[in-house]
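Lab notebook, bench 4. Still working through the backlog of constructs that have no structural model yet. Next entry is a single chain of 179 residues. Request: give me the structure tokens for it.
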Amino acid sequence: MSWLEAERTELAAERILDAAGALFAERGVDKPGMDEVARAAGCSRATLYRYFENRQALIHAFAHREARLITQQVARATTDVSDPRRRVVEAVISCLAAVRERPHLAAWYAGDSTLLREVLHDSPIIRGSAESYLAAGATDPDLADWVLRIILSFLVSPGADEEAERRQLERFLVVPPSS
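Model written out:
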């Protein structure tokens, strides 16, 4: 495969994911079928299946792409935060802001969030990102899952504003250092 062919493949997959994202925003994540995604992307079903073997693969690819973009945004927002306890709070606040500013993601946490919980649980990209912001030395394997559940909780049932959410995170998520 030539370098140009690889670039075309990536662009085609991105176009399909963009079309899927628009349909998710319009109709919900569980509604659009592969036929509808293919039509929205302007390709045939055969082309769609060349890039994504089934609907689950398409959904996971979309979620992973968004997770990578959100992770980059969170990394930029937390780059100067050296205190691990502050860093996890800033990471959660930044993650919430990044998700909320993407209208095509609202369908993922509006109403029934079963699919989002499954993706959060199954995605090594999302879990790895969550783990990278936890305090150094955190060895409890359930801690990343707990932080992801906190994020999901704030998405489904937001606080009054960012400052209210920050206060809750600082009070209940950040464990003060032992004396």
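Notes after review: The first helix runs from residue 3 to 27. The two ends are 60 Å apart (CA to CA). Flag for follow-up if needed.
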